[in-house]
Design a protein that fits this description.
Helix Hairpins, about 375 residues, 2 domains, Glucose Permease (Domain IIA), single chain, rod-shaped, two-stranded antiparallel sheet, 4 helices, alpha+beta
Amino acid sequence: MNRNYIHTAAALVLVLSLIMGYSVQDVHASDQQISENQQQQDGLINRVKQTDRRVKQIKAAVDKKQEKLAESREKSKWMKAEIKRLNAQIDSRDKLLKKRFRAMYVNGGNMNYIDVLLGSESFGDFIDRMFALKTISDNDQKLLTAQKQDQANRAAQQEELAKEQKQLEDGLTELNDLKDELLKKEEDQRSQLARLKKEASKIKRKKKMKKDEEKEVSEAQTHAIAFENASDSNAVFIKPTQGYVTSGFGKRSFDNGFHPGIDIANSEGTPVHAAAGGVVFRAYHSSSYGNAVMISHKFKGKLFTTVYAHLSGYEVATGERVAKGQVIGKMGNTGESFGSHLHFELYEGQWNPPPHNGAVDPMKFIQ
């Protein structure tokens, strides 16, 4: 039997030492993390698609605006040629008007139309001179009107050209800025997506490790029970430590959560005893239980499991047989704990991670 004990203990140590660094209680959290991660990925993928569509729309708008700007520049060339033509007409009229004004100045500032008419040699000459004077007057008026109109047209065309080009250039700058902003946003979204995918792969790997761990823990406990079969006990459980119960088994009123055991409070270092004889199938540290010991028991052919958590330290090893009342550790405040106490769980059957199927009220079994 000692040889069997050594072989069993060695096997348990080998199996459980591989999984000490991980918490079986995290297995079920992985599914939720994967689901949340996938939801984030789906949402981000939709946003990336929306951003991509928006970028394409902006690029199309930029192309269209650039086409209009190219057309405006062609129009600008035509308008500059037209302005050049108007400037030539204005210069030509300026010279003609200046010549007319000099002639009028030489004649005292006004043309003496009466002298011209009275100087007629005949009635026919009179009529010709009258029409000639009228033609000169009308031409002067037309020159002045055309000059003013051309000057106004030139100013309007120059203003229109400048305004149109400024609007197009401002619009193009705004669109390019928006395009750059959207491309940066799309790049950030794709980086986030890559991060989420990497995180999802990490969670899945961790989940697989947890499932493998859970399987190994179950197998380890099965080995422990197989070893314990040789010493079936009729003993009942004892209270594992001295102190007062601060939290009972079941639903808690303050947070509506399920408490799978009882909490017994006392000063740190208070001895913690095995509630019954059995085999330690796990002595380890986890983020939630802190320093913890799990023991398998067999009474009248039935399997029970006890859990002792938040210990300051433990004094037994995986695979070790313990006697009822044996000190297995000291009360502490490790893991998710708020004050020195022992968190004690009792299972009919094997220990199970959340939702802790099989957990029963220890107070109903303690002598």
